[in-house]
Each structure stands twice: as C-alpha cells, then as structure tokens.
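Journal club prep — side note

Before the paper discussion, L.F. wants everyone to see what a predicted structure for a comparable chain looks like in token form. Sequence:
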Amino acid sequence: MRSQIYNIVSKLLILGCQLLLLINTALAQSRLPVFSLKGEYLIENDKKHDNTVIGGLSGIDYSSGNTFYMVSDDPGEHGAPRFYKVIIDYSEKQGIKNVNFLAVNHLKAPMGKTFEASANNADTAKFIYSDAESIRYDNSSGHFLWSSEGYNSKGIMFQPFIFNMDTNGGFIHRLRTDSIFKFDSSGKKGVQHNATFEALDVIPGSSNIVYCSEKSVLQDIHSFKDEIKPIRITIANKISGATLSQFAYPMEDVYKNNSNGVVELLAISADTLWVLERAFEIMNGCSIRLYQATVNKTTDVKQLPELKDKQFTFMKKELLLDFSKIGIKHIDNIEGMTWGYSLSGNKKTILFISDNNFNAFQITQLLLFEYENK
C-alpha cells in the first residue's frame, strides 16, 4: 500500500512540475510583444532624387517627428555614396500614406577625400571605399554613426569601419573596432567578405553602442556547415569605440546553405536587443526573422581569441516575428529596421526596409508594424 501511495505521490509531483514549467513558459511568451502589420509601401526602382538613383537602401533610422534617414550601400556605381533625409507619413487606418525624399547628402571620407566607385581605384590607406550598411542618429550628439562592410576580394582588401559624421555627411572620426573584426590575408581568421558590419545601434540612456558582423569570424567556427554559428555582439564606447564586452549570439543555418546572417540590431537596453536575421535560398526566397536576445547569465567572450571548442554560454534568443507568417506573399531583401513614431496609446511602431541591390527583379519594400509590450 505504501509503495502504491508513494508512486501516486511521485507521479503527482512530476505532473505538478510539468504544469509549472508549462505555465512559466506561457507567461514568458506572453511577455513578448505582439506585432500587427499596419502597412506596406513600395518605392519605385526608377525613382530619383537630386540626380541620384534611390536604391540599395540598407539602413534606416528615425530622427524626430516624421523624419527618417536612409543610407544607400551604393559604393559609387550609381552616384556618390550617400544618405537621404526622408519624411514617412503613416496612420492607424491608412498605414504608410506617403514617402517623401527631402534631401540627399554624400558620405565623406577622411581628409576630404571622395569615395571611389570601384575597389580597383581606391586607396586602402585612406579608407576611401564605401559599402554602407547601417546608419544611426545619435540624439545626444546630433551626429550620425554609420558602418561600412569593407571589401576583401580579388586580391584587394579594405577593412570594414564605423564612422562618426555630421548631419551633412562630413567625416568627424573613425571609431576603433575590435581587432577580431578585420580581414586577414591568411583566410583562416577574421571576418568574411561581404559579411561584416551590417548591424549597429546606439544603446539608449548610455554612452555606448552595439554592433556585430553579419556572419561569424572564421576562427569561431569549424566550417561553414556548422548548424549553430556564433555571432559576436559587441558593446563599445560610442566615442572611442573601445570594446567593453562581447557576447555570442547563436545563429541557426535556416536553409543549410550558410546564407543566414544578422543584418540589423535595435537596442532595447544594454541587456536586451532585437536582432534581425536574414537568409536566402533560390527556391524559397528570403527568410526574415526578428528575435529578442538577452545577455543575462551570458559569457563575456571578449578575451577569447576563438570560440570553437571553447566553453561559453550563448545569449538567450526568442522569436518575435517570422515574416513568412505576416500575410504578405513576397518578402524581399530586408536589411534595415528602426523605431517609428507612435500611432495610439502605449503601442509603438517599427519599420523595416529592403535593399533592392539596384536590381530590376527586386523591390524597395517598406513594412510598418505596430506592437505592444505585454
């Protein structure tokens, strides 16, 4: 009899623990924001402003009112490297009503140099090759930060960088970035070509920024076939660029073709980030997913020269938004995201933009969502 009672009590305790786990999981999920799509807007591929072709829009940031800034990753093939001041009008009922390009400013290189359209013509010592990917307005200074992916192909190498500039695009200074994010001629360490500084943000209420490379540095992975690849997310001083901490973000290979990458970050706080991932496969198109990542109980890996075969704790990530489930048939090459202005009550907005690569078969797509924190 006693053994039967013991078995019953044991089973009840196990069921109770399982129930508590389910309740805690449900509560944790319920605390994540709920998103609702408010609108889609397409910018024509042949649209021009002030004799520049509007395309390659790889970064977007909110300033104030209904004013936003967009940066083009054009290295100079369709016009000098540039960013745009844009008015975006949207409403609760009508979604995105209008996108009006007000001004264009050219990105300036150090010492008054201009950026070259071709990597073959650029001078590596003067950083005059641009592949702009992210732009952020710093309210505290009134300046911009912007990142370039650099170039490492066909025997030509230009290191990625983060620049501080004024509102006219004038160069102020170059931030020091962690040495692990450099191209290396050996091909065995450092960042990968076309997969460096895609993601950047200013951490609110602090003097710091957060940035990462699109894909893993080579010394952190065994091969491109690794199912989980670590992305080093770096917290740094926004003036000097000095690395303060670094955390490993786990990135899955969605299509099993090494196309997954982190294309943008938004900082909720120093401990909580929104991470935008993109992957591509010819038959399936673009996979775009937004995650929330936290650094609580996460290993600071800034002192580890490589992560493969090392013991460390990844950042915790939770899926916020899967673009394949938002009700829009075609999702293009989403690369930029920013907060927007509120529409109602405590709800907030977030906008995403796609980079059409100046390709007639792609689109420049703006997507507007409203969300509410539970």
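L.F.'s comment for the group: The chain has two domains: 1-30, 35-372. Keep this in mind when we get to the figures.
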